[in-house]
Amino acid sequence: GAVVSQHPSWVICKSGTSVKIECRSLDFQATTMFWYRQFPKQSLMLMATSNEGSKATYEQGVEKDKFLINHASLTLSTLTVTSAHPEDSSFYICSASVIYTQYFGPGTRLTVL
Amino acid sequence: AQKITQTQPGMFVQEKEAVTLDCTYDTSDQSYGLFWYKQPSSGEMIFLIYQGSYDEQNATEGRYSLNFQKARKSANLVISASQLGDSAMYFCAMRERFSGGSNYKLTFGKGTLLTVNP
Question: I need a surface site. Which of A55, A101, B32, B51 has the fewest CB within 10 A?
Answer without folding.
Answer: A55
